[in-house]
């Protein structure tokens, strides 16, 4: 039997909420989350995700009244296409598979050496790493599908920050020379 848990290859993180949960809509429960940008060239991770989604579908009978559905909405989208609710993905999504993973529990956040990261400026939207995610079936208000749960994240490398904000180290990269005394 295939597991519904996956550890990705090297991905890029976007829309990170791993230090503090965020509510998607007014009145909704705040959750931790991340948008995972998986390069389309990483066929091994894509295959593991598709197998995990199928495992979650096969395990879903308890969610769907004892019947395993034939087809369900999947949590993986083509970053070169349109968003499921309309509109285009941003340029950072081009050439990637896109998964939004959420959890009501705080994920573990570690660096390359598996040392915990506490500083949100060290783990930010745009950095690269890996994610531990799990897939499960849902049946909520007539919507049926497979969702991605966020377990843990690992930072492997820095990247250009997404969202228009630069890192403080980059903002002040040039040495400042105070010449007001001249």
Key phrases:
single chain; 182 residues; mainly beta; OB fold (Dihydrolipoamide Acetyltransferase, E2P); five-stranded mixed beta barrel; 8 strands; 11% helix
Task: Report on this structure.
The chain is built from two helices and eight strands, in the order E-E-E-H-E-E-E-E-E-H. The chain is mostly beta strands and 182 residues long. It has a single domain (5-162), classed as Beta Barrel (OB fold (Dihydrolipoamide Acetyltransferase, E2P)), CATH 2.40.50. The protein has a five-stranded mixed barrel. It is elongated, with a radius of gyration of 19 Å. The termini are far apart. The model has no long low-confidence stretch (mean pLDDT 90).
Quaternary: single chain
CATH superfamily: Nucleic acid-binding proteins
DSSP helix count? 2
Q: What's the SSE pattern?
A: EEEHEEEEEH
Any chance you could write out the topology, listing elements then pairs?
Blueprint: E1 5-7, E2 11-22, E3 31-39, H1 43-58, E4 76-78, E5 96-103, E6 108-110, E7 128-140, E8 143-157, H2 168-171
Parallel strand pairs: 5-8, 6-8
Antiparallel strand pairs: 1-7, 2-3, 2-7, 3-5, 4-5, 7-8
